[in-house]
């Protein structure tokens, strides 16, 4: 018994040390999205090419919603992946042109290629607030009913696609949506 | 001797005063870091509410600053939204709810009381309680020690003498 008492501080130290050690590797930068399993916010805006777009224009199958901007360097890194997904018809991609200028967005798409079915023009960032966006790039997985099911913050490259999106999509398909 | 016991030393006093002032300055609002916006308000009260809200809401992009202290794009947008909502007559709790629905607990510098945040709110109290119990235990045990406990009986005295004798 007295032996146990003697080791109590040591035990306490070990518990705290393990907790703090784990804390060193926690990801505190990535916020969980509040919109998971909630429908896409309603919108009635214009697209980058100037036509009116609303929720009814969204694909009626599983699609990606990618938040991008011409100022956003990581968006260039993920661009080839989005181009491949779109060109190979693997999944439709809808863009949100976030806190950008329309003319710069048009130039950027002309220079780098346009993987998007359309891009919602969000110059003020107001639509981004409804989505809970805090910076480009962010990519949402939306199901056929227009419900947000998954969010990935920062670059979506082939590895992220394979390891995070494909399993998430397989899960959605298994549910039959 | 008696006066120096009460006023230990001028330098020590100065040092303590300096530390108190420095620590106290940490409590002041960091107005120097606030972003300057050109929002217009109808009343002082609206302006005060705007300041309080943008101090109490956290910038989702630049983690450890408030909305008022951040130059980040999303912070700018959210300050503009707070201004709009205040001017539209929404209450503070409605505005906080609006932010919470989009950015979650993260955006609140003053987290809500939920099952997940109970430890956050009452953890310090818990530790105070544990420490208090330990202190109480030690105090109680210390009180039990009487003079007889610290006095040696005859055989112990002899043993002590023996040990001291060995040394010399």
Word description of this protein:
The complex is a heterodimer of chains A (177) and B (168). Chain A is built from 5 helices and 7 strands; from the N terminus they run αβββαβαβαββα. Chain A is of the alpha/beta class and 177 residues long. In chain A, strand 3 (63-68), helix 2 and strand 4 form a beta-alpha-beta unit. Chain A starts with a helix and ends with a helix. The mean pLDDT of chain A is 93. With 168 residues, chain B is mainly alpha-helical. In chain B, helix 3 packs antiparallel against helix 4 (73-87). The two termini of chain B are 39 Å apart. In chain B, 15% of the residues are buried. Classes of the chains: A alpha/beta (177), B mainly alpha (168). The interface between A and B is medium-sized, with 19 and 15 residues.
Q: Any key phrases for this structure?
A:
heterodimer; A: 177 residues; alpha/beta; Glutaredoxin; five-stranded mixed beta sheet; two-stranded antiparallel ribbon; 7 strands; 41% helix; 19% strand; elongated; B: 168 residues; mainly alpha; 8 helices; 64% helix
Topology:
The complex is a heterodimer of chains A (177) and B (168).
Chain A: H1 2-24, E1 44-46, E2 52-54, E3 63-68, H2 73-87, E4 93-98, H3 102-112, E5 119-122, H4 126-131, E6 138-142, E7 148-153, H5 158-175
Parallel strand pairs in A: 3-4, 4-5
Antiparallel strand pairs in A: 1-2, 3-6, 6-7
Chain B: H1 2-6, H2 10-27, H3 44-56, H4 73-87, H5 92-103, H6 118-144, H7 147-150, H8 154-167
Helix pairs in contact in B: 3-4
């Amino acid at each position: 018994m007295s032996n146990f008492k003697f080791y109590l501080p040591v035990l306490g130290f070990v518990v705290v040390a393990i907790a703090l050690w784990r804390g060193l590797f926690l990801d505190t930068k990535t916020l969980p999205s509040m919109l998971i399993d909630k429908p896409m916010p309603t919108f009635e805006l214009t697209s980058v090419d100037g036509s009116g777009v609303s929720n009814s224009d969204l694909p009626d199958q599983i699609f990606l919603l990618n938040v991008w901007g011409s100022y956003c360097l990581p968006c260039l890194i993920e661009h080839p992946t989005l181009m491949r997904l779109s060109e190979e018809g693997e999944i439709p991609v809808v863009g949100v042109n976030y806190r950008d200028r329309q003319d710069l967005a048009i130039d950027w798409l002309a220079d780098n290629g346009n993987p998007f079915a359309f891009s919602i023009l969000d110059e003020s960032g107001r639509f981004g607030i409804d989505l809970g966006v805090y910076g480009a790039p962010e990519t949402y997985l939306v199901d056929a009913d227009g419900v947000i099911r998954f969010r990935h913050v920062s670059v979506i490259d082939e590895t992220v696609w394979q390891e995070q999106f494909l399993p998430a999509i397989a899960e959605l398909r298994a549910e039959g949506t | 001797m008696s006066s120096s016991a009460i006023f230990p030393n001028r330098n020590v006093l100065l040092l303590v005063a300096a530390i108190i002032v420095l620590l106290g300055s940490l409590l002041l609002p960091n107005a120097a870091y606030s972003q300057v916006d050109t929002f217009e308000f109808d009343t002082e009260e609206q302006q005060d509410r705007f300041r309080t809200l943008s101090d109490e809401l956290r910038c989702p992009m630049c983690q450890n600053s408030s909305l008022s202290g951040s130059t980040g794009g999303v912070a700018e947008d959210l300050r503009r939204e707070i201004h709009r909502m205040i001017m539209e007559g929404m209450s503070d709790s409605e505005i906080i709810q609006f932010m919470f629905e989009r950015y979650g607990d993260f955006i609140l510098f003053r987290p809500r009381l939920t099952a997940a945040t109970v430890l956050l709110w009452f953890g310090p109290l818990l530790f105070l309680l544990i420490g208090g119990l330990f202190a109480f235990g030690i105090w109680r045990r210390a009180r039990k020690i009487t003079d007889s406990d610290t006095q040696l009986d005859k055989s112990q005295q002899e043993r002590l003498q023996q040990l001291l004798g060995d040394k010399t």
